[in-house]
Design a protein that fits this description.
Layout lengths: L19 H11 L5 H17 L8 H10 L7 H10 L8 H6 L6 H14 L6 H11 L17 H11 L7 H8 L4 H14 L5 H9 L6 E6 L4 E6 L4 H15 L7 H10 L2 H11 L6 H11 L5 H14 L7 H7 L5 H14 L2
Antiparallel strand pairs: 1-2
Helix pairs in contact: 3-4, 4-6, 6-8, 7-8, 8-10, 9-10, 10-12, 11-12, 12-13, 13-14, 13-15, 14-16, 15-16, 16-18, 17-18
Length: 355
């Protein structure tokens, strides 16, 4: 699949995204300085809302609430609000004009957040080329780039991630996404894994398992050619953890509570959120997965700061029986832990392992 020819064309998600020329004219005519809140008041709350009245879908309530917060330029947490919009992905396509306007904000953190959010929401819209052009015009000191560092608080890697994501159609066939996941470009691999989680397709399991445990190249390439600008750049970025995280979450979503998902649970146990670590610690011992895939992660979890993670990791080790013998020394130390449940579980696990 060619990234350059994979633009989204589905009309179910109508994005009211003004062209860069229109946006620029609006800014010049009404704004003394490019402030995200000011632009939102003109571009989104005016023209975009009026256009949305003719659209088949209403702006979701939580998207509207976040846009209302973002329009208040006095709020100190606008970057976090933008990140929250990005996390909504397809649900937030109506926010694309506002996010694009934020590329011209005076706060570098807001601009960086907008670049990230556009990479998450933009693929679900209908005009990704306009977004690429806007980023190329406003995220760099010179649209020709050629390796020049951007002027804002984000790296070339951040822009590369967004450019590559905008070139992938979220409705691409599962086989095409698997090919991307097994390719050599890190950012498309990351996004392909995320999209495969939405598919929950069993054909993707092997590719996702490979991505969790495999090695990943440290490189990125991005180029664009639109009506207004063209250019390219390359950078070195270690995207391995981002790919593994996306693949681990996709694997767990695709094969929940199954042995095939063991590498995903093992990765999340060491690197996931607190909720993900707790769930993985509780689940790994029940999967019947080969010990070689989960033992190291469970042993590492014996040093987790969270008591619940620690308790569940001990119980999962106990379920492995004698093959968990390498964890015996750690379990003996835990018999003196301040938490009574941990002491009891450690003693019970040792009995199972040393029987």
């Amino acid at each position: 699949m060619s990234l350059g020819t994979c633009w989204p064309r589905h009309g179910a998600h109508r994005a009211i995204l003004p062209s860069v020329a229109t946006l620029g004219a609006t800014v010049r005519s009404v704004a003394v300085r490019p402030i995200c809140g000011t632009l939102l008041g003109v571009v989104f709350l005016g023209n975009a809302v009026a256009a949305q009245e003719d659209a088949p879908e209403q702006v979701p309530a939580r998207v509207a609430a976040l846009l209302g917060e973002l329009a208040d330029d006095a709020r100190p947490a606008r970057a976090q609000t933008i990140a929250a919009l990005g996390a909504l992905r397809a649900e937030a396509v109506a926010a694309l004009p506002a996010l694009t306007a934020c590329l011209q904000d005076h706060d570098p953190e807001v601009v960086a957040a907008a670049v990230h959010a556009l990479g998450k929401v933009g693929p679900y819209g209908t005009e990704p080329e306009s977004i690429i052009e806007a980023i190329a015009l406003h995220a760099f000191p010179d649209p020709r780039i050629g390796g020049t560092a951007p002027r804002h608080a984000h790296s070339l890697g951040d822009v590369g991630r967004t450019f590559n994501r905008l070139r992938i159609d979220p409705q691409a066939k599962t086989g095409e996404l698997i090919d991307l996941l097994r390719g050599d470009l890190p950012f498309p691999r990351e996004f392909a894994a995320e999209l495969l989680a939405e598919r929950q397709d069993p054909d993707a399991i092997d590719a996702l398992r490979e991505a969790v445990v495999g090695t990943h190249p440290i490189k990125c390439r991005s180029s664009w050619r639109t009506a207004g600008t063209s250019g390219s750049f390359s950078c070195r970025v270690d995207a391995g953890d981002a790919i593994r995280a996306a693949a681990a979450r996709a694997l767990v979503a695709t094969a929940p509570q199954r042995a095939a998902a063991a590498p995903g649970y093992a990765w999340l146990l060491q690197h996931g959120t607190l909720a993900e670590r707790r769930d993985a610690a509780m689940t790994l011992g029940r999967l019947g997965a080969p010990a070689r895939e989960i033992l190291d992660a469970l042993r590492a979890a014996l040093g987790d700061d969270d008591v619940q993670v620690l308790r569940e990791a001990i119980t999962s080790l106990s379920a492995l029986g004698p093959v968990a013998a390498p964890a015996s020394a750690q379990l003996r130390k835990l018999q003196t832990h301040t938490d009574e449940q941990i002491r009891r579980r450690a003693a019970a696990a040792l009995r199972q392992i040393e029987r």
